[in-house]
Amino acid sequence: MSGRWTASLYRTGAVMRREMIERLRDRRTLALILGIPLIQLLLFAYAVNLTAYNLPTVVADMSLDTRSRSFVDALRTSGYFDIRRYVAAEADVLHALDSGSARAGVVIPPHFAANIERGQAQVLIILDGSDSFSVQSGYSAAVAVAQSFALKLVVQQVNRLGGRLQTQPIAASTRVLYNPNRDDLVFVMPGLIAMLLQVLAVNMTAQSIVREYELGTIEQIMVTPVRPLELIVGKLTPNILFVVIDQAMITLLGVFWFGVPFRGNPWLLAGLSFLFVCSGLGLGLLISTVAHTQKEAEQLSALLMLFSQLLTGFIYPRSPMPAVVRAIGNLIPLTYYLRIARGIITKGVGLTFLWSDVLALLVYVIVAMGLAAVTFKKRLD
């Protein structure tokens, strides 16, 4: 029995050495494997901002009094609106939005100050609905500025009439946990780590297996004493190594370069990441059994990435999605690992709060690897 195990380990090691040599020889592909995750992290960190500040804004102030100017100044001071120019009428505001020279417009009707005194003042804020982030940020900022401006006017009016405003009707206190500065990178980085891990694991595995079929070397391998399971393990192990290296680089860059706080246990994240990588390898093997060329494997991997971006909670929240769409997202392991990564990195929680996602990921790994092994063996036969 020990002799069989020794022979099996020797054959598996031979496949691992062959796969590692191929990876190290192809320096261009190796550079892409190690460099693309870093480039993507830099792009997300410096270019992606989920909150839109300094929206280009045009103002049609048809009142031109102190009250209207004070309201425009309040919009400018908020930091969300960049007043680019003043126009004469609402039609000019719409023209600026149509042309793309502005993302927001403010229309202040005539006699704004007099209408304030009568309690009938109105302001129209128009937002460009073609940009969702501009709408979300602009709408929230406009409501907040209008409420603050109105409260300030109420206080001034009460003081002018000789009264005194004892308390505000509502005193709201807001506290943001885990990300008090609402830094987008704190939200993006755990999800980006998860997404890159899945993409690398799936792509490298699918490409590695399919390449053997395209080059015709799979037959040469199968005439050797190497068994299908040994071939799978031998080819997957170097891919695990490269994916782990990529994860370490991305995490260290995010924590030490961009200052993203890491509140959890790094060893727990490493162990659960290994579980997630195995699920990605299983997906890659499944793709390799379906695809007959590297081009087909790339297309299937791109389709999986699209579903992962839209349905797993990577960018868009899952709670508003229909039940059928959420069910499709549950078939993707990234759905579970996203909650794990954000829970450990951002919140600092442990297995007590993550056990259901870990269990779901473990079941997924067993099923995916089992299906991949069976279908892969059938294809070899």
Keyphrases for this structure?
mainly alpha, 381 residues, abc type-2 transporter like fold, four-stranded mixed beta sheet
Description:
This protein has 381 residues and is mainly alpha-helical. The chain has 2 domains: 2-48 and 182-380, no CATH class; 55-160, abc type-2 transporter like fold, CATH 3.40.1710. Helix content is 69%, strand content 6%. The protein is built from 14 helices and 4 strands. It has helices at 2-25, 27-47, 66-77, 90-99, 112-118, 132-160, 184-215, 218-222, 228-257, 266-290, 294-311, 323-329, 334-347, 351-380, and strands at residues 55-61, 81-86, 104-108, 124-127. Strands 2-1-3-4 form a 4-stranded mixed beta sheet, with helices on both faces. The radius of gyration is 29 Å and the shape is elongated. The two termini are 26 Å apart.
